[in-house]
Specification:
By secondary structure, the chain is of the alpha+beta class. It has a single domain (about 1-170), classed as Calycin beta-barrel core domain (Lipocalin, Beta Barrel). The chain has helices spanning about 1-20, 35-40, 150-160, and strands at about 40-50, 55-65, 70-80, 85-95, 105-110, 110-120, 125-130, 140, 170. Strands 1-2-3-4-5-6-7-8 form an eight-stranded antiparallel beta barrel. The radius of gyration is 15 Å and the shape is globular. The two termini are about 30 Å apart.
Length: about 180
C-alpha cells in the first residue's frame, strides 16, 4: 500500500510539474518524419534538468509500448538514492498531430497532459533529445547507458542554440 501511494504521488508530481499544456515553444521543431514503432522500447535517461519529480533519482529509464487503442504506454522508473527505493510512474502518451510527427502529450494522472516533444533523433533511433512546452524541461536519452561524446556535444549545442540553459543539465548516473 505504501509503495502504491508513493507511485501515485510520483505520478501526480510528474504531471503537475509538466503542467497541463501539450504544445512546444513555437521556435522548437519536432522530429518529422517520425516512426513511432521504432521509438518504442527502453530508453536510458542520460541527462535532464533538475525536476522535483526526478530529484535524487539514478538509473532512470523510460519504457514505451503500444496500447491496443493506439496510445503509447509509458513506464518511467528510477532509484531514489536518498530514500533507498525504486520509484515508478505509469502513464500514457498521445500524438498531438499524428504518429509521423514527434509531438506528443503525456499523462500520468487523469485528464492532465504535459508536452513530450522529440526535437533530436539519430537515424538509428539510438539517441534522442526531448523537451516539454518551455525551457524548463529537457532530457537526453539513449538506448544504452552511455552516449557518444559527439552526440552529447551536438545535442548540447542544439539545446543551447534554442535558449536552454544547458549548464543546468544533470548527468544521470546509470549503473
Amino acid at each position: 500500500m505504501k509503495t502504491q501511494i508513493k507511485s501515485i504521488f510520483f505520478a501526480v508530481f510528474s504531471v503537475l510539474s509538466l503542467g497541463a499544456c501539450a504544445n512546444t515553444k513555437s521556435d522548437v521543431k519536432t522530429v518529422t518524419p517520425f516512426d513511432a514503432e521504432r521509438y518504442l522500447g527502453k530508453w536510458y535517461e542520460i541527462a535532464r534538468f533538475d525536476l522535483r519529480f526526478e530529484r535524487d533519482l539514478i538509473n532512470v529509464t523510460a519504457n514505451y509500448s503500444l496500447n491496443e487503442n493506439g496510445t503509447i504506454k509509458v513506464v518511467n522508473g528510477g532509484y531514489n538514492t536518498v530514500k533507498k527505493e525504486w520509484k515508478q510512474a505509469k502513464g500514457k502518451a498521445k500524438f498531438v498531430i499524428d504518429n509521423t510527427v514527434a509531438k506528443l502529450k503525456v499523462s500520468f494522472f487523469g485528464p492532465f497532459y504535459g508536452a513530450y516533444n522529440v526535437i533530436a533523433l539519430d537515424e538509428e533511433y539510438k539517441y534522442a533529445m526531448v523537451v516539454g512546452n518551455d525551457l524548463d524541461y529537457l532530457w537526453i536519452l539513449s538506448r544504452e547507458k552511455t552516449i557518444p561524446e559527439d552526440i552529447k556535444l551536438q545535442y548540447i549545442k542544439q539545446a543551447k542554440d534554442l535558449g536552454f540553459e544547458t549548464d543546468k543539465l544533470i548527468w544521470v548516473k546509470q549503473e
